[in-house]
Amino acid sequence: VPFTTGVDHVCNYTGGELVLAHPMTLSPSAKYYEYGRVMMAALYAVADHVNEVRCGVLVKGKRYKLKIETYDDVSSKTHVVTIIDRLLAESNVDFFLAGYASSRTRLYSGKLFEANKLLIAGGASSQDVFANKSTVFGTLGKSWRKMPNALTAIKEAGGKSVLSLHEESAVGCNGIDNTLAQLGLEHTLDKEIENEPNMTSMLGHLKEIQDMDNPPDAILFCTYLTGCESYI
């Protein structure tokens, strides 16, 4: 069907549509809503550009329009798995896109690899999402590369010990032990804290740290923006 683009040409999608489906957090009250909202806007902007400006994608002489299907996962691990299982069983999805975060994407990247489906995991950086899965690709840098500069700054400032607090799936604190050892810094404790900590809960954690016999020289917070904004 001819499609008028508004850029002074008409596109004929002779091959039909390519369906790209993905779970994404759409509920404003859910944990990863802000990430999901921004990621989804970017995905649809790219699809609009490909469809309207480039007249879709050209495959073996035929043009295909990109169609994105989005399903609300409410940041739930259970919902994510249910969505993927249903799409694999009941729909004709050509490619898959991942939402946020690594803790959710790792639950189904293996399933899609086994089904020989291409997955672009733009919101994941943990290597277990991608390892030994040749059909799974990412766009973010490796999570273990995020921390060395901060740890080096602590060392250069005279610090000798570090304590880390992390939210579930906040991968910034993952894999820092090797870097700490290389810098000669002691990792006194790594503690998982509640999701979306607020000022009150963080003050409680800080009070516990202050009361330690040997409190650390520095504290690493590996948390998400929603919580961080309330206590930084």
Automatic annotation (TrEMBL):
InterPro entries: BCAA_transport, Leu-bd, Peripla_BP_I
Superkingdom per UniProt: Eukaryota
Keywords: Signal
Coiled coil regions, renumbered to chain: none
Pfam families: Peripla_BP_6
Domain Leucine-binding protein: 32-183
Name recorded for this polypeptide: Leucine-binding protein domain-containing protein
